[in-house]
Each structure stands twice: as structure tokens, then as C-alpha cells.
Amino acid sequence: MSESPAALLARLRRASPLVTRSLVAASVLGVLATIAIIVQAVAIAGAVSTLVAHRANAVTGPILWLLGATLVRAVAVGASEPVGASLAAPVRRDLRRRALRQLVHQGRSTNLDATVQLLTRGVDEVEAFLVASVPSLVLAALAPLTLLVYLTARDWLSGVIVAVSALLLPIFMWLLGLAAKDAMEQRWRDQQRLAAYFGDVVRGMIVLKSVNRSGAALAGLDAIGASLTASTMATLRVAFLSSFALELLSSLATALVALVLGLRLVHGAVSLDVALVVLLLTPEVFVPLRRAASQYHASSTGVAAAAEVLALLEGERDSGTRPAPARAPRIELVDLVVAAGVEPVSAVIEPGSLVTVRGPSGVGKSTLAAVIAGLADPVSGAVLVNGVDLADLDRDAWHDRIGWLAQEPVLRGATVRDAVVQGRTVEDRVVRELLDSLDLDIELEHPLTEGATLSAGERRRVALAACLVALPVVLVLDEPTSHLDAASEVAVRAAIDASTATRVIVTHRRLVGDGEIVLER
Question: pLDDT tens for residues 48-63?
């Protein structure tokens, strides 16, 4: 079941301290707007009472108060969205960065398209939740309570009537929220399924056509789309029903207060200015509650997406604070166990040296490389970098300083140039020279789209070039010479030997280096 927005907001605050800034800004603006509403009501009531008493010369003061309060309210309400957006944007970037890092760390095998949907539209919806729903939730908590206290102080009977009516609203909202929960979660799941299934169908359409199964795949796509339509309509029905119920209840409460005030005003039990203030403020008690209910349904996707992002971040490791080394470091493995049933490893890798990691298949060589790269946790033991536990280093800084070549490298970018430079400022001449040194005769503008694929060996050398171009202090390479012919292998070995980084190479072959780590069961 999905969480309430308040509980989800509390989890967001724990996950990202930046959320607190949005809460503080929304609280300040909400308090200002509420105070301005009270001043407006008092000013209007005072102006009308003054005119009724035929004291037109005394109406200037209330009018000036009214203009000032209107200006303050307009500024507070108008600034709410842009201020919220400016504060929520860093939260979006923080959540997306940490979620991506966690996915890399966990090595998740979830569908790529569903993951892209979560980290793009899902995280964007979380931002929308913070921009629109958070101010509404804060105002729904602060404004009615403040207004009720003021109403009770001015006229206790009207305050009691409004309080009883206002207490019924959360009950209605809770009941309708229960009805909306399943629809909201189902809608988000259907969006995830549609994104994942659509991506799979597009990528496999050639194969599906060849075996005459494209019709069944398209039928499955239609079924998921129909399910998404049904869950969206279910959410809309609940939203319309809740809006109708809340509008009806608030209208009845306002009418009841007006009726009682009218009778009491006729019998002289209440003054005109008090009656006007109460009558003007009564609808304002219900406005924040209705707006919060409306935003709750509007942000349903953000609520579901935030819950999934937070679930992903629950296993996030705390990043250390020690700075990463700026030069090739000394790496020490202390009784390191990377997988169950594997013997502990202790070794010292001197600065700038080249050490190979060997062992039978399945013994954990790639896992050891990932542990040294800070992408996986060992079963036991420790990795020391210049005598400092790797867990105590700033993880982002460490990742920026190392070159990591996975067993199955993924090239990111639209062209070979993009895949190599990875957003860095690197001259084309440098990229060209690096590719030539790896015996890779390929144009920098060569596309990496489907239909313009590279061979396995070319992909590995492009990924290696992306590692080398950043001038890392540590190189962790998993089978860098696989899928290569003899000439290309010699070029790759020469490029690795020319690096001054501390190098750890996973390989099945015996290579000439400064040392060797052998994993055994």
C-alpha cells in the first residue's frame, strides 16, 4: 500500500536534507498568507462597520490595511510556486544522482526502460510533488488551525461550528484517500509496465516479425495501455468524488455559520464587525483543506514514484568524508573475502604498479575488481587506500579518480566521441590519438545507435579509452584484452603499461606485471 503524503514527506526529509528547505519556505509563506487573510477580513469588516455607522472619515485606515494585506498575500501566494521550484530542483538532482549510484552499486537487473521511466519521469514527478503538494500540505496544517484559534477568540460559538465541520473534512479525506491508494499505485505500476514492455517490443520487433509473433506483442501492448487507461480513470473518479464531497461539506458549514450569525445579529447577540469577520474567514478555513485534497490526487504519480525511489535508496551506503587520493595510491587488501566459499585475500599493490587478478571461473575475480572500484561491498575484510579504509573515502570523489572497465562495458552517448569524453572538455586531437594508440581506426562521429553497432572488441577499446582519457589514479580493468586480435591486444597492453596509475587487471591469462593475486575456493 502507498503511504500518506505526510509520511512520505517525512521519509523524503530523511533521505534528502534538502527537502527541509522546501518545508521551511512553504511554512513561512503559508504563515504570511494566513496572517494577511486575517488582516484582510478585519480591514473589510472595519471599513463596512465604519460606513454603516456613518463615519466615512475613519475609513482610510482600514482601507490602507486592506491594501497592505492584499499585497502581502499576493506576494506570498505568487512566490510559493517559483520559490518551491527553485528549492525542489536540487532535490530532484540529488535523488537522481544517488539513485543512479545505488543502481550501479547494486548491479540491478531490472528492466532498463522501467528504470529510465523511474529516474526521469518518476523523479520529475517527485519534484512536482514537492513544488505543488508540499505547500498545500503545510498550508492545510497551519492555516485552518490559525484561523480557528482566531475565530474562537472573536466568537466562540462560530468557532465551535467551524471546528466541528473542519474535523469532519480529514475523516472524509482519509476515507477517500483509502479508495484512491490502490488506483494510484496501480496507475504507476501500469506506467512502469508500459514503458518496459514497449521498449522490449521495439528492440525485439525484427525477431518478432521473423517468427510471426508481432501481432501478439502488439496485443499485449494494447492490453497494458487499456489497463493504464482504466487505472487513470479510477483515480479521476475518486478525485472528482472527493472534490464534490469536500465542496459540499464546506458549503454547508459556511451556510450554517451564516444562518446562526444572521439570527444572532438580528437579536443583537453579536456585533456587525465580528459577524463580518467570522463570515469572511469561515470559507478560508476550508480552502487549504480542499486544495490539499486536490493536490493529493494531482500528485498521485509523484507519491508512487517517490515511494519507489526511496525504497531504492534504503540500502544506500553512507559516503565517507576523507578525500580521495590525487596521485596513484598504495592499495592494500586485508583478509578480503569477496564471495562465500572463497579464501581470504591479503595483498599489497604499490603505487603505480600493475597487478593481475587470476583464478578459475566463478571464483569472484570480477567481484574483487568491483570491490576495489568501490562498486560492491566485501563479505569481510577491508580495502585500504594509502592506509585509509575505502569505506571512509568520499565515494563520488573516488569514482571520479578511477578508471573502471566492466566485464560488459556500456557505452554512454550518441557517438564514439561522446562515449570517450563522457561530458569532459577534451580536444578531438587527444581523443583521436588515444583511439589510434588502441589500434582503433574509427571516426569520432561514428554513431552508437542500433543498426550502427561496434564489434565486441571495438566496444571494449572505446570503453578503455573512456577510462584512460580522464587520467585516473587507479585503473581497474576486467578482461581488457578479451575479443581482441593479436595486434589490438599488443596495442591495448602498451596503452595500459604506459599509464602511471595503480593498475589492477582481471584476466584468465598470465601477464607480465609487478605482482599477481590468485583467488581460490
Answer: 888 877 776 778 888 8
Q: Where are the beta strands (DSSP E) in 362-466?
A: 380-385, 388-389, 402-405
Q: What is the b/e burial string over 39-58, where b = at least 16 CB atoms within 10 angstroms of the residue's CB?
A: bbbbbbbbbbbbeeeeeeee
- pTM equals 0.53
End-to-end CA distance of the chain: 44
Pairwise CA distance, residues 434 & 424, whole Å: 15
pLDDT tens for 121-147 read 777 777 777 777 777 777 777 888 888
Strand ranges inside 446-486, DSSP E: 474-478
- Locus of grid cell 576486467: 478
Best CA proximity match to 449, nearest among 419, 425, 471:
419
What angle do the packed helices 134-154 and 19-52 form, to 10 degrees? 30
SS3 label, residue 515: strand
Contact 242, 297 (CB under 8 A): yes
To the nearest 10°, the Cα dihedral for 312, 315, 320, 321? 40
CA distance 257 to 243: 21
The domains located in the chain, with CATH, are: 5-313 (1.20.1560.10), 331-518 (3.40.50.300)
